[in-house]
Amino acid sequence: MTTGSHVPEDRRYTASHEWVRQEGKVVTVGITDHAQAELTDVVFVDLPAIGKEGHPGQPVMVLESVKTVADVYAPFEGKVVAVNSELKSHPELVNKDPYGAGWLYKLEVTRSEGGSPLLDAVGYRAHMEKGGGH
């Protein structure tokens, strides 16, 4: 169904295949279409606790698929302020709609510098073409 190549222009991307959409001091985080295609069918989403501290390059949560277990990393330093609890009973939303209903968590950013620079859609596509996909 999904090819793993869809990259919306309205958000930023990490080299580790998370997407970030900024809304003031809060960012919504999910995994990219490429990442969900690599994982195959997501069967369990281990959501972070509200209030959990996120640090760039550190795992915040885990996704389990029929194929593997994958960490999801924090793009910035901050605190988890919301999670997509719908994923507890419908983990397949991560595969079906990774940029919409399959969002993972929201992070209130306390420090945006110090992490890996985020890529725009063009930069993320270039990263993928250079072999940035797993």
Molecular structure report:
This protein is an alpha+beta fold and 134 residues long. It has a single domain (12-112), classed as OB fold (Dihydrolipoamide Acetyltransferase, E2P) (Beta Barrel), CATH 2.40.50.100. It has 4 helices and 9 strands, in the order E-E-E-H-E-E-E-E-E-H-H-E-H.
List the helices and strands and how they pair.
Blueprint: E1 12-13, E2 18-23, E3 26-31, H1 33-39, E4 42-46, E5 53-54, E6 59-65, E7 69-73, E8 77-83, H2 86-89, H3 93-96, E9 105-111, H4 121-132
Antiparallel strand pairs: 1-2, 2-3, 3-9, 4-6, 5-8, 6-7, 8-9
First-last Cα distance: 20 Å
Name the CATH superfamily classification: RNA polymerase II/Efflux pump adaptor protein, barrel-sandwich hybrid domain
Number of helices: 4
What string gives the helices and strands in order? EEEHEEEEEHHEH
Structural class of the helices, strands and pairings? Answer: alpha+beta
Beta-strand percentage?
Answer: 35-45%
Arrangement of strands in the largest sheet: 1-2-3-9-8-5
Radius of gyration using CA atoms only? 14 Å
Mass-distribution shape: globular
Please summarize the sheet with the most strands: 6 strands, antiparallel
Mean pLDDT: 91
> Which architecture would the CATH scheme give at its second level?
Beta Barrel
Proportion of helical residues: 10-25%
* CATH class term: Mainly Beta
Total individual domains: 1
Low-confidence stretches: none
